Each structure stands twice: as structure tokens, then as C-alpha cells.
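New here. Your pick:
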Amino acid sequence: MDSTGDVFLSHSEPKILNLLADWFDKELFAHSLRVRDVAKEMAKHFKVDVEKASLAGLLHDFGRGIREADMLSEAKKLNIPVNYVEKINPCLLHAPLGGKLVVSRLGIKDVDTINAISRHTVGEPQMSDLDMVVYIADMIEPARSFSDLEKIRDFGHKRLLEVFELAYVCTLYHLLKWKKFIHPKSFEVWNWIQSSKIEE
């Protein structure tokens, strides 16, 4: 894919792929390719910008190039606010870290793409369609396997918000089942989903 507009800027997709091959281990690199492909498929179906979905899907885990042990200190350097749940589970910071790092290290300037990367783990109230596509694509990429996954993958006759709600339910159920901490923003996202359904 050639460089186009403000999305890829000076980076063609092959150049980004070469950078990621050095930045990621093989498993994470393969995962990123799968998420890119699912995000493109979903973007076409839900009439979301395909190039932005492709780029955000490819780069969604860019923050995982930082060792988990270094994520708290890196977040401090980049002025990313850290709450008590993120201190307990610093890996949650890989999404906002990724949003910052694709700007500083790759020169990505498209706000929609940056937001989709930053929001793909916990989410955000007022998720855009692109945000939801990348969040879901990360969850349903072909290598994933867990109960109720097929309900989310079967998005053909569903609205995007409906698919996102199914995905978010799975996330919350997993956290509750295993008695994990829930990010405080998750409650805001859940309430946003419900209020958005009323408004539709």
C-alpha cells in the first residue's frame, strides 16, 4: 500500500511492516497482521475508513514493544496519567503508550488512528466507529479462542454498537469470573454503551 494523505504520511505499509518486525517478537507481529486483516474486513462491512482501520489494527499493540516492567516509568516520561489499577497491572498502559509512541517514533499524525490505538484495551466513553472496530478486531482475530467468541465474530447482521457491546460484556465477564480489578473507566464505557442504545 502506498503512502496516502495524513494517515500513512512518509511511511508506506511495507516500511511499517519492516519496523514492526524489528520492534515486535514473531508472535506479536503475527497477531498484529491478523488484527489488521480483521479490522479491514470489519471496516468495509461497517463503512469505516479502511486505511485508518488497517493502520490502527497493524499498530494497535505498538506499546507492547516496551517491556511491561518499564511501562510505568515510560508512562511517567510521556505524561500519561496512571491510576491505581494500572499500577497493579501496568500492561493496561500499552494502549495509551502505543498512541503516544506511534506519534514520536513513526510520525503518525492522524488523530482518529491514534485514538483507536489508545482506546483498544479499556475503551473510552464516546468511542468512534473506528475505535470500536479496532477493539473488536483485536478480540476476534483468528488465533483467539474463548467462549461466546463466535457470537462476536458473527457480525454480519448486527449493528456495530451491538457487536461492541457483546465484546465488552466478554471482557467484563472475564474480569469478574477471575476476580480481577476492573479499570474505573470501564464503568463509564459500559454506561456510554447503554445510553447510546437508548439514543439510537
Q: What stands out?
A: The longest helix spans residues 26-46.
